[in-house]
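Researcher: Next entry in the queue.
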Amino acid sequence: MSFAAGEMDIFSLPSTAHYSYFPPLPPPFSASMFAAKPHHPTALSLLNSLPDPPSNHAPASPPRRPTSHKPLKTSTSHYSKSSRNPLKNLINSQPQPTPSSIISPPPPHTLASKLWLSSKLSPPPPPPPPSAPEEILCSSDDENLEGSSDENEMYVPRSEFVEKGKIFVGNLPLWIKKKEVAEFFRQFGPIKNVILVKGHDDIERNMGFGFVIYGGSTAEKSAMKAVEFDGVEFHGRVLTVKLDDGRRLKGKMEERVRWVQGKEGEDYRSKWHEEREWSRRELRKVIETEPENWQAVVRAFERINKPSRKEFGLMVNYYARRGDMHRARETFERMRARGIEPSSHVYTSLIHAYAVGRDMEEALSCMRKMKDEGVELSLVTYSIIVGGFARVGDVEAAEFWFKEARERHETLNAIIYGNIIYANCQNCRMDRAEALVREMEEEGIDAPVDIYHTMMDGYTMKGDEERCLVVFERLKECSLTPSVVSYGCLINLYVKGGKVSKALEVSKMMKLAGIKHNMKTYSMLINGFIKLKDWSNAFAIFEDVIKDGLKPDVILYNNIIRAFCGMGNMDRAIRTVEEMKRARYKPTTRTFMPIIHGFARAGETRRALDVFDMMRMSGCVPTVHTFNALILGLVEKLQIEKAGEILDEMLLADVRPNKHTYTTIMHGYASVGDTGKAFEYFTKLKNEGLELDVYTYEALLKACCKSGRMQSALAVTREMNKQGIPRNTFVYNILIDGWARRGDVWEAADLMQQMRQEGVQPDIRTYTSFINGCCKAGDMPRATKTIEEMEAFGVKPNVKTYTTLIHGWARASLPEKALKCFEDMKKAGLQPDKAVYHCLMTSLLSRATVAEDYVYTGILHLCGEMVEAGMTVDMGTAVHWSRRLRKIERTGGGITEALQKTFPPDWNSHKTLNAISNTDVHFDGSDANDYDDNLLHEDSNSDNETDFDGRGIGEEYL
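Model: Structure for this entry, 958 residues:
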């Protein structure tokens, strides 16, 4: 039996003392039968029969030859007992035998006398011929015991423990590695294995000696050639090269025998090995039970004496799951520094660490290293690479490595298919994802439930409700049980589509199925109600979270803070931040952004800056998104100059503005019609190399259309075409509104036709802007026809559409048409707002001098509705209407009495009347025409609430 291949993994020699002398073994016996016997104290008699090891300082002496031709004495009764044995007084209290007792027959109670049956079954070998020259001392090396006589020295054949083709190499440099030793001794023949004896205190170094084992049919000849180079210089050391004398294997065999004699039926395990195995088990236990306790895992690993590749692989895999690619690499390099070559599993764990950390360049570098070193790239390795590129959104790279995996491996599994399907779904390439699912099923691989969820999520991002529901139904048909993730995908689908009522229906389905909500599903519902500005239901969902015993996390707190800011309760939002801190949650920049934006939008710049400082005191470093929130609030309050100052402060704080920063300021200047400033920031954006998108050009078009510079707007559209940026609905709405402001119906109609040709569908704002242009041009028949056309296309008019049409009839001095349009609006189920009443009342008062019955009736009816709705007009409108009344009822009357009920409460104050009479108030119906000035502002993408960086708020879970 040879232990050469793995002897250093099982037996590690701390020093050369392990080569001490041991006497020959007892006569052969059956180990299994011995193991079956009960333990007997006489088994310890072997300890007394062992001579003392030689002194470490004793010089080596050549092997002694027998002085006579007498047969060799092999019985255990002939072992001599050294007078220097330190254990003799502890184990055997009998007096030391005299020399005459040594050569006497064995005592009746010795171990050999009790093995008479095994001696019969396996008799000892006959003694060798007395004149055999190849017999040598049974010493484990060339040393001889001091004071031992010729009669006491026992001889056994060296071939019993000597391994052919194995050489001993001494005086090696302490830093040498197996690779260097193998390269030097490979010149004598093929090498089977290289063993370097490692140190225990510093296991990165060896003990200065080792063994080289040659393989093949010429192993013995190769070893003989290598021995001839004894004394050769190797890296500054003179090597000692000898044939293996069997000392090492003999010592191990005797240790095993002693262990078997001491404990029955157990394999050899030294105390050092037992301690290391216990440390290994502790490491696995800590990783499985306390993966979040990083310090405990590291301490358990450091307690392992001389960790192997398996333990290093466990640590690399542990760091990979945490995404700690730097410590994973450090552990990997420590393993290689100890001379342990990484396997495919360890390399794959390191690649996994880089994939989780989204550093795909380093992951590919590891793959190239694996190929260079000839390490096999397993299917798991390819799955991790494909999944890593899927996470970073590089679907082309994911497809490339998936193709290579299919070429190298005959069969694929569901994991790698799931990763490539996920990559395509995240890029809305659903046709390719469907083809992959079909291909997987054709290969006989059943799709797990995770792939169903991935497909549902992909259809959700694409907005394909029908196919998402088909996948959900198919999931149930395949006998797969829908989980909270399955229902969460449906809730996400309806929330993103604005169908929160259907999301609530899915919530009820979950409860009927016995599935409880988790934090993600609750956060989706709250986010849906926040988008609808339904604050009460948002807080009701939050109460359900508390009732279910769930502990709110940072994301849920952030959504609640958004709700408070949306309803204008800024103080409650700040108190929620303090509540987060008491719950030991650290606020993030996303926590403070809606508060800063809310104060800035309300015009409370000072308080917004105070919250900004509070964010810094909480340990949050301001980012570009935080500054964007402040700038957006100021722009919405039309404090454009102050927003520019915040931009300068960003540069001082070494925070680089992004395209959203410049676009927000451009929208601010566009809202006031300052085309020059808008183009100035557009130039800055281009000079800094930032990406130009459709939102940037929207801001420029707004500025041009607001100021009436339509030729400049056309130049901007030509620039968009050069950049390859298509015009969407919002761009067309801005252009149509710009031409409509000038009353150019023909240009607006031409743009409407271009929209349809390019496949861009007009929306309600498109039709409203076009109707506004028709009204300004006095083409009321065309405006009425447009109303019919939009209803035919399934676009229902809203309040602003009817207000625009009413204003057009009023300008055409046809109040009866305006009244009819007003009645049509109410029949459509729309609730009139203040702008509608202002516009219609002004039109009727202007025609009241005609003294037609429908005018008087209409005025009284409108006044009654306004009073019932609790509407009061502003002071300027009241003054204008009172002047109109003087022409109708100079001394007062029913109309005056009814109309004054809609005036401000202090209208009859003597002081107010004097102030009004001395003030030249000009009213041109601007209050009723607020919708006209705001049409352009509503054409932006502001209806899709953004988190100041172009992403949806509260979508961390989605």
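Model: The chain has a mean pLDDT of 76.
Researcher: Noted, moving on.
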